[in-house]
Automatic annotation (TrEMBL):
Protein encoded by which gene: ahcY
Keyword presence, Zinc-finger: no
Primary role: May play a key role in the regulation of the intracellular concentration of adenosylhomocysteine.
Species this protein is from: Acidianus hospitalis (strain W1)
Domain S-adenosyl-L-homocysteine hydrolase NAD binding positions: 182-343
Enzyme class: hydrolase
Coiled-coil segments: none
Names of the cofactor(s): NAD(+)
Cited InterPro entries: Adenosylhomocyst_ase-like_sf, Adenosylhomocysteinase-like, Ado_hCys_hydrolase_NAD-bd, NAD(P)-bd_dom_sf, S-Ado-L-homoCys_hydrolase_CS
Any Pfam family the entry gives: AdoHcyase
UniProt protein name: Adenosylhomocysteinase
Cofactor binding description: Binds 1 NAD(+) per subunit.
Length: 415
């Protein structure tokens, strides 16, 4: 069969979910209309490793309307919405994903979508790109896209090591992606995941955000907005200084571990919360990860030092430490907003996935011109997505006069 999902009978509910998402994604619906009229992806085979959510469904349905043949696998073992996966299968998308995959299942599903010999690949995290480069180098890939910071970092490393085999557009680097998806989307959805898993009160608690990139900024700002006393842990002096100037306390993790009550990782790096940090934590501390991979919290080390472990409620596990204190790990250290909640709101994914769709078209239209390297999203696409979003929100913006445009081009006029 051209799919492997949990239950095809869930399709009706999944279709309702997709309809709800598409209602809140006006920019992508405008892009869909354009691509459908142009049929600019007719016959193009696309394999994608993305979170299988209602918003992703809106994206792959758009690609299909543009004429593409799409195969989809999940980019996280816990993020797939099974009803959405079923609805996509009924729409003719080849889906290999279900919530609760093992690591073996995860890579097996990546292998399945590559059997369709894609022309273009789309990824969220870099696992698909890495798998192709390590095990499927015979595939003739025109190019690819990458959705998230972690994946772009991996691809840049591949480019610098001169092993990259095809051009990739870093969708994550689009202004309309990282300023909104990373900051506003994750800022809201990570807290949504924490609240669904715990139902704790945020106000009055000491929250520690590890990492002050765009994701960390969004989480820290929204935690403060809900009444938390927020500490930022950051290794970059520039970002640490920015956090201080934004009004946050800044300190190393060794000190923050002793005072925090809620911990959220957002670095893209490994073991930023170590077992040594965990041993210093207060009784009742909550640990959550907002980074793409489940490496930011030393889950293995936590399991080694725990006297006992028990599940309290979905996505909330209690670990008793040797000193008798208990800490609570959310979603086994995986991406909390997608494992314990539904990911970003559709409105913000509207921007990211409009960039994705238009970037795929750009790759195909320029397939004979692109060099083998990592590209940013072309500015004209970035600005177009912003304009489509504003139009969908019913907002008009100022227009420069011809005189103003000419003034901005010259260098002679002074005081």
């Amino acid at each position: 069969m051209d799919y492997k999902i949990k239950d095809i009978k869930l399709a009706e509910q999944g279709r309702k979910q997709i309809e709800w998402a598409e209602m809140h994604m006006p920019a992508l619906m405008s892009v869909r209309k354009e691509l459908k009229e142009r049929q600019s992806l007719k016959g193009v085979r696309i394999s994608a490793v993305l979170h299988v959510t209602k918003e992703t469904a809106a994206l792959v349905r758009t690609l299909k309307e543009a004429g593409a043949e799409v195969a989809l696998a999940g980019s996280n073992p816990l993020s797939t919405q099974d009803d959405v996966a079923a609805a996509l299968v009924e729409d003719g998308i080849k889906v290999f994903a279900w919530k609760g995959e093992s690591e073996e299942d995860y890579y097996s599903n990546i292998k399945e979508i590559l059997k369709y010999e894609p022309n273009i690949v789309m990824d969220d995290g870099g696992d698909l790109h890495a798998y192709i480069h390590e095990k499927c180098q015979s595939l003739k890939i025109i190019g690819g896209t990458e959705e998230t910071t972690t994946g772009v970092i991996r691809l840049k490393a591949m480019e610098e090591s001169k092993v990259l085999k095809y051009p990739v557009i870093a969708v994550n680097n689009a202004f309309t992606k990282y300023l909104f998806d990373n900051r506003i989307g994750t800022g809201q959805s990570a807290i949504d995941g924490i609240l669904r898993a715990t139902n704790i009160l945020i106000a009055g608690k000491v929250a520690v955000v590890i990492g002050y990139g765009w994701v960390g900024r969004g989480i820290a700002t929204r935690l403060r907005g809900m009444g938390a006393r927020v500490i930022v842990v950051e290794a970059s002096p520039l970002r640490a200084l920015e956090a201080v100037m934004d009004g946050f306390d800044v300190m190393p993790m060794s000190k923050a571990a002793e005072v925090g009550e809620i911990f959220v990782t957002a670095t893209g790096n490994i073991n930023v919360i170590s077992k040594e940090h965990i041993l210093k934590m207060k009784n009742g501390a909550v640990l959550a990860n907002a980074g793409h991979f489940n490496v930011e919290i030393d889950v293995k080390g936590l399991k080694e030092i725990a006297k006992s472990v028990r599940n309290i409620r979905p996505y909330l596990d209690e670990y008793e430490l040797p000193n008798g204190n208990k800490v609570y790990l959310l979603a086994d250290g995986r991406l909390v907003n997608l494992a314990a909640a539904e990911g970003h709101p559709s409105e913000v994914m509207d921007l990211s996935f409009s960039n994705q769709a238009l970037s795929v078209e750009y790759i195909y239209n320029n397939r004979d011109k692109l060099e083998i390297k990592v590209y940013n999203v072309p500015q004209e696409i970035d600005e177009k997505v912003a304009l489509l979003k504003l139009k969908g929100m019913g907002i008009e913006i100022e227009q420069l006069t011809e005189e103003q445009k000419e003034y901005m081009k010259q260098w002679k006029y002074g005081t």
